[in-house]
Specification:
Largest sheet: none
Order of helices and strands: HH
Distance between the termini: 50 Å
Mean pLDDT: 71
Helix content: over 70%
Keywords: Signal
Number of helices: 2
Low-confidence stretches: none
Number of domains: 1
Strand content: under 5%
Number of strands: 0
Radius of gyration: 17 Å
Structural class: mainly alpha
Shape: rod-shaped
Length: about 40
Amino acid sequence: MCSVFHLSCYLIMFLSCHLYKMSVFEEDKALEFTHEGFYKGS
């Protein structure tokens, strides 16, 4: 049971990290623009 639990946790973390990297890669410039505007605004 413990090994299965750890495996599922690893799989979820891997998938979420992969999706996060893909979204960041696709919206990299939009994120940079948003961050720049946020820092300039504050």
